[in-house]
Amino acid sequence: MDNAGSYAITATWPHDDGITQCTATASMNLQVQPAAPLRLSNIYKKRGPVLTPGWDWRVIFGPHSDLRPIQILMRGVRRARFPTGPFRTYNAAVRSGDPNWNDGDQRFLKLPRWGLSIEADNRFLAIDGKLRSGSTHEKPVGYEVKVIQAGRQLGDIRAAGKCGIFDCVLKKLKVQR
After folding, report:
1. Which residue of 18, 46, 130, 171 has the fewest C-beta atoms within 10 A of its own C-beta?
2. C-alpha to C-alpha distances, 53 to 34, 113, 147, nearest whole angstrom
């Protein structure tokens, strides 16, 4: 049950007391409260407004957290501008019965000069964005990452500039959460 509301539950079972056989039925309405929406961590909390060649979004699930699958949309370019064009999509499952469930195993998704490391299970979600290893001098990069759950945007980061192994000099940076 992914949606809040009232759900009717009926149970039926056979009953035999040794003399007669009959069927018993019990019914009730179950009120399901809405799950608590997820809120991603603040990528500036530790670093301030300077973006190092990496950032992370984290959320630890509470007992009433929304555990529907989380969709991560990403796109990137090898230029110091915001990317355009279609997004690549990754669906992170946080419940064991959902497709793509990997029980906390880490996945690494590649964008041009940038990469995402994603871990998800029924306890937490961790998304790390970082410069892909390669050259030691600055190169232009542009990327966008959106995090969506059940049609609700949890976060969006768009960055464009030059990144090296020690820092990123960004001409443009937009973060929403």
Report:
1. 18
2. 37, 11, 20
d(CA 139, CA 163): 6
pLDDT of residue 52: 61
Residue 50's pLDDT is: 47
Number of domains present in the structure of the chain? 1
pLDDT tens-digit series, residues 111-141: 888 889 888 888 888 888 888 876 567 888 8
- The reported pTM is 0.75
Contact 55, 127 (CB under 8 A): no
Q: 3-class SS at 33?
A: coil
C-alpha to C-alpha distances, 100 to 21, 42, 76, 85, 176, nearest whole angstrom:
46, 26, 23, 25, 26
Residue 49 has pLDDT above 50, yes or no: no
In the chain, how many H helices and how many E strands?
Answer: 0, 11
Could you tell me the residue range of the domain that residue 163 belongs to?
54-176
Q: Is residue 28 part of a domain?
A: no
CA-angle at 50, arms to 49 and 56, nearest 5°: 85
CA 56 centroid distance within chain: 12
